[in-house]
Amino acid sequence: MEGLNDSFNEPDGQGGTKGPEAIRKVRNTDPATYLRVLAAVLPKQVEVEDITPESQLTEEQMLDMVELMKAELERRKKQQDGNTRPVH
Q: Which of 19, 29, 42, 80 is buried deepest, with most CB atoms within 10 A?
């Protein structure tokens, strides 16, 4: 594996390395191999955990929050309606 890493990072003579150019070449000339290699280096499974504060609430707490939001929207609507005068 170390030899592969050394080859990948070998200088290309223009201030870069040969690895990225090799990847571009395979991607353009042999897409099937490119995708096979890409799939081989990607994780087989990714676990995602929801850690937002909302994810910690019970269903009852969520429903209470929805009711509070509805009440606040209604209050704002009434306030806005009370402050709006028809234009003549």
A: 19
